[in-house]
Amino acid sequence: MINTEKIAKNIRINSLKMVHKAKASHIGSALSIVDIVAVLYGDVMKINSENPKDEYRDRFILSKGHACVAVYAALAELNIIPFSDLETYGDNFSWLMNHISHKVPGVEFSTGALGHGLPFAAGKALSAKINKSKWQIYVLLSDGEMDEGSNWEALMFASHNKLSNLNIIIDYNKLQSLDTVQNTLSIEPLADKLRAFGCEVIEVNGHNHMELHSAFFKKNNSIPKAIIAHTIKGKGVSFMENKVEWHYKNPNDDQLALALAEIESTYA
Question: Are the C-beta atoms of residues 72 and 18 closer than 8 Å to each other?
């Protein structure tokens, strides 16, 4: 197995550096998905680094497009984009925009407005089924995004069409925008709701690579798979963890240095 822990460490470091340089937002949201992204890109998805548009590739959709730095950093790890491009994140005329953009090699779909990724992914999954294509599609949603009705329509569509090639991952870090998910609009009982909408549901620790790996490779032959990944917003930087303000704040020079030092000491 590829060392996805090492990939995750590098993604955390580069995500922090990008957000700091650009004075951008959403570092907490990006850090909560790092381990999911590292396992997908490092060990699960079929990707051709030399040809990101290979027709046999698996497809990944980041519906929570504001967490894009984690995916940009992963694409650099796979040599799909150069590491030097990461330094341009958020700059005028850079293709590394503050929400994920399909103009970047390896990115399938531009997102930003929430609730669009799953409907698009369901359509792609149906297309693959009709064409008897063997590739899988993975779509990563935020928990707060489950407030959007379009997701529940897409779940009904996916279940009705028996889209077993559709893999839904919900980044359940329990915080959204300015408050907790519970206080904003509760989505519980989430697992029961997803089952009622026709999904096979697996709950995992979203920072445990072995649990993620097992969930992704669990065979599912007739219905969509929904993985509820319990995560921590800001994971890996203690002063950011479970702090809602890091949805919008960016680290200053001293905070960046502290965060990088902590990651270096915590992760192998």
Answer: yes
User: In terms of CATH architecture, what is 4-266?
Assistant: 3-Layer(aba) Sandwich (3.40)
Q: What per-residue string of b and e applies to 236-262 under the rule 16 or more CB within 10 Å gives b?
A: bbeebbbebebbebbbeeebbeebbeb
Cα 131 to the chain's mean position, in Å? 27
Query: Is 145 in a helix, a strand, or coil?
Result: helix
User: What is the Cα–Cα distance from 142 to 190, expressed in whole angstroms?
Assistant: 13
Question: Using 50, 70 and 90 to split pLDDT, how confident is the model at 225?
Answer: very high
Domain ranges of the chain: 4-266
- Distance between CA 147 and CA 110 in Å, rounded? 20
- Is 13 buried (19+), middle (13-18) or exposed (0-12) by CB count in 10 A? middle
Count the neighbouring beta carbons within 10 Å of the beta carbon of residue 219.
6
Q: Quote the DSSP letter at residue 101.
A: -
What is the C-alpha to C-alpha distance for residues 251 and 178, in angstroms, rounded to an integer? 18
Report whether 128 contacts 122 (CB < 8 A). no
Q: What is the DSSP letter of 144?
A: G
Q: What is the pLDDT of residues 129-181, one digit of tens each?
A: 999 999 999 999 999 999 999 999 999 999 999 999 999 999 999 999 899 99
Helix H or strand E segment including 13: helix 4-22
Q: Could you report the per-residue pLDDT of 27-40, keeping only the tens digit for each?
A: 999 999 999 999 99
Nearest-10 Cα torsion for 136, 5, 239, 189: 40
Cα 199–Cα 201–Cα 205 angle in degrees, nearest 5? 150
Question: What does DSSP assign to residue 25?
Answer: S
